[in-house]
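If your schedule permits, I should be very grateful for your opinion on a structural question. I would ask you to consider whether the tokens describe a fold that such a sequence might reasonably adopt. Thank you for your consideration; the sequence and its tokens are set out here.
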Amino acid sequence: MIQSVLDQTELQDLAKRVDTAVQAVRDLKGDAREKALAMKTAIEEFHKSALTRMIQSLKSDPHGKELLFAMIDEPEIYAMLSMHSLIRPDLATRVRSVIENVRPYMQSHGGDVELLEVTTDTVKLRLAGSCNGCSQSAVTLRNGVEEALRESVPEISHIEVAPNEPGPSLISVESLLHANQKGWIAGPAPEELTDGKPFRIEGENSGVILLRSGNEIQAFRNACAHMGLPLDGAMVDREAGTITCPWHGFRFDCRTGECLTAPHAQLEVLPLRLEGGIIHVRPS
């Protein structure tokens, strides 16, 4: 195991300095902003090229590969490689992210999807509601899930749909509606959300924040993965697609909740649906 040079506080401070500097560049106007961003891009591409060569060299040797895996365990190295998209979250995490992204659309059409298992090249799902059956709409929804998985996680070559478990022969409409609402809380209408500004819904355990980015809306528990402090005052960079904790500067991906500052920390993504023109979130 490699001894980390930086402690967690130093790493946070360095990450915050980077975020502050990048934001200062983005706040520039006109030609100065374009030149500064061009310099930032050139430096990043230079670093990524060098890091890629270094990784390729290490992976070509058994001892180098072992050393590389040990290095990735260090937060500052993991954060740097993640920033340059040289490492990705594990397979199961990426599959779960895809499922959570397609779930709101499926629920808006009366369906749902449950992830059962992820292996080396296979994903096993269970579909519910209007996704389950042979109608044209059900086939369309199933194909949508499969297309999203194959596009975002190309390692997956097999997608299995498990049969639904048998249930009672007769269920009243009232029971279905009551069960469907259990655990969900009503939020605002989509048009009430400001693009790039967290919207807080009060509730237990610090509540929930909704984050709108263009036509996409994501729901997270209102608690930073670092120390659990609220995120409703977080800063959102719409161009970079990141949300930055206002307390210690941890940066997260606005779509997946993945932490870009330190490994193994992720915002809790919550399921949501649109019903009657109102966003509903299930915090538990």
